[in-house]
Amino acid sequence: MRALVPSTAAATAALLLATITGATPAAADHGPDGPPLIKVSHGDPYADCTIGAMSPDSVVYPGTEVEPYLSVDPHDPKRVVTVFQQDRWNDGGARGLVAGWTTDGRTFHHSTLPFSLCAPGGADFERATDPWVSTGPDGTVYASGEGVDFTKSTRSGLLTATSRDGGRTWQNLTTTHVDEQPFFNDKPSLTADPIRKGTAYQVWNRLDNDPPGTGSLDGPGYISLTRDGGRTWSEARRFVDTSAVPNTQTIGHLIVVDRHTGTLYDFFDRITYSDDLSTVVEAHYAMVTSTDAGETWSAPVTVARDTSVPEVDPNDPAKLLRAASTLPSPAVDPKTGTLYMAYEGSDFSGGRFDSVQLVRSTDGGRTWGAPELISPNGVPAFSPSIAVDERGTVALTFYDLRFLKPGDTTTLPTAYQLVTLAHGDPKRRTERRISRIFDWLQAPYAGGYFLGDYQGLVTDGKGGVRAVLTETHSGEPRNRTDVYTVGLRTR
């Protein structure tokens, strides 16, 4: 979930801590341009859970699965673990998190992640959110998420668990950090080190709004790490500081690792607000570097301006959408070390709507090139994910609205696309649609029509990538969304 939902184009910034109380004509849907999607989410393990209502206005969307991520075993691309929110609430989080696992790449089974009271043996939190998963070089699967309470107090905790049987069962449930208001922890991610067995990193932003509503905000980046396969985690500590500039926060921390050098790169968005927190004064993506496995970190380097604007239905801007604005998606070329970051920005629309943009660095992040447009020109696009395979092919996935007809305000036809750049070369671009065309407006409403603040894309180690995404269903109020996955060749 997001404690702040900033926009660089409008005065829409708001503290969750204070507020918790021109497209192309549509075409016939002939199906995906490639293999069919595989459904991951089946059933609802939390259907009977009655925990978590924050107020009489709280609405839970039963049977909804949103905000998926995934991981592939580095030694076997058929061993896949996905994670997602189950039964989304309109005012923050979900009843719980679920894992879908497979050993053949096709048939998915389920296990409950122990991150909320709805899950058997779960942590002492009423709701859970922000699922993440990563697999280490020894096959250990690390899952993380955030537990949240709103009824007894505003309380948030960072949680991890590990699986040594491919996601069937989960052990070593750990609360790596917990806070109560005026602090709020947000947007954790987890990265298993691909070359250091037993090592993984959990990073997030920790908001301090003390006291609430006074226009005082600090939101540094925090880290906790394990060196023993998730059995124990280090005490959480600040590793990206924001105290020098008043009313500044970070969000979207995500670590990628260069397999040749072992260097860690943490990417995030850095946002500064006006004195009353009503507007964004400045926002940019940045990164910090560690050459000693997360013990020490460099000063931040600017990657790109955050030019994202409010995510809305372009035919009816009063209808808010919720996607990956402010959240970077980075990757590193495993062969050359070239760094990439995909993100939502409005550079190519004159500030009218977000497109999918890409920047790159060939010198270890010291300098960055100008943004490149990845999604179609003139079409709003959202939620980019990026991965680079072992031959240097850059793959990006995203939602776009190319099938929306002018004047259509009753539906929002949406599709998920895959773009590949052979060796990162924009001139060697290919594109294909990997989802059916579906109506985004059927999604649960949580600060906007919500498919998730992110989706997932990873390499499979065999010359391809695997994507995970959310689609909606029309006319099914008790099954508005499902999670799907597909493996795709990149050459």
TrEMBL record:
Superkingdom classification of source: Bacteria
EC numbers on record: 3.2.1.18
Catalytic activity, reaction form: Hydrolysis of alpha-(2->3)-, alpha-(2->6)-, alpha-(2->8)- glycosidic linkages of terminal sialic acid residues in oligosaccharides, glycoproteins, glycolipids, colominic acid and synthetic substrates
GO terms classed as biological process: ganglioside catabolic process; oligosaccharide catabolic process
InterPro entries the record matches: Sialidase_fam (IPR026856), Sialidase_sf (IPR036278)
GO molecular function: exo-alpha-sialidase activity
Keyword tags: Signal
Keyword Signal found: yes
Assigned GO CC terms: cytoplasm; membrane
First and last residue of the signal peptide: 1-28
PANTHER family cross-referenced by the UniProt entry: EXO-ALPHA-SIALIDASE (PTHR10628:SF30), SIALIDASE (PTHR10628)
Family of the protein in this entry: Belongs to the glycosyl hydrolase 33 family.
The protein's name: exo-alpha-sialidase
